[in-house]
């Protein structure tokens, strides 16, 4: 499946790739927008905020914010 | 801890349900399961309507259950067909009968609004009933909330540390994952493809592979209950052909059904289906013993975690890193099913 493509059944698919050799995650929205992040919580928040902040197909790396505490 | 009630849950392996009465508690509802003479699995409320005596501690008479306390007798629909000492059966004398579907060797029950019970929505695990596969299975009760088992299974990097010597090797924790969430189907996929890995005893002894392996782990989680791990094991550097059967590899389909029993206890149904050495009983015995050991390592750890969480102050701040990407997605989908729609762990 190519980045940003919908699922075979036409569903919306979010993808997060862990960039090999790095600590970086690449999030890909079903709309094609992308973002880099250093931890998954903020990345999921951005993905699920679609379409807010998803205007460009490719978004430069977000500022690494380090590891965040997650509300349990 | 809230449950997603309008969902199908595994209440038993099919082989557990027979002509003996089986007690299970699913989403806090006590059930009694049995099989009719015609072979149909039945799930009734496990409390006699009269004085609450557990029907699971009673007896079967044909297809009816006779309460072991005063003899109230129920048919497979839950209707009372006999009460002691009088002819009139009170109109309210019945117990709940829950929708049951037996599929892929698993007995699924629906606890919520029965009008919404659609058997077509039950996720499949076809290997468990496929004669081309050999299957070993078991069930372990956890004294821990179901969310802890979901967390555990969605992040297999713990294999390296908790299951070393069985299924864990250094490469599991060291290999980056890819996570996909199919938002509309409500399925989470987590893939970890190890190109050059040590072969853990679980696979070395069962496949006979000597030396290093190419090991793929592809998780498919269908919240809330069904977790599938497609495990591909091959000699190092052997990949699937562009076309045709992947016959040079060994495939294990590892299935977990995660069924909340109460807010703080869970049924961990597990099965390992394999497409190799299917007639070798010694491999079956080894994989059964090994996976049982692995499951009990998880049970011990999660029981400890449950006690820790139960004793901790409110609003404890946990930490998530890259390995948790899939687990966070699973939590969100679970929370969506429960109805809160938040990213935080269901508590």
UniProtKB/TrEMBL annotation, chain A:
This is Uncharacterized protein.
From TrEMBL, chain B:
It comes from the Bacteria. The keyword Metal-binding applies. Keywords: 2Fe-2S, Iron, Iron-sulfur, Metal-binding, Oxidoreductase. SUPFAM superfamilies: Bet v1-like, ISP domain. Pfam families: Rieske, VanA_C. This is Rieske (2Fe-2S) protein. InterPro entries: Cholesterol_7-desaturase, Rieske_2Fe-2S, Rieske_2Fe-2S_sf, VanA_C_cat. One of its GO terms (molecular function) is monooxygenase activity. Residues 8-109 form the Rieske domain. It comes from Micromonospora wenchangensis.
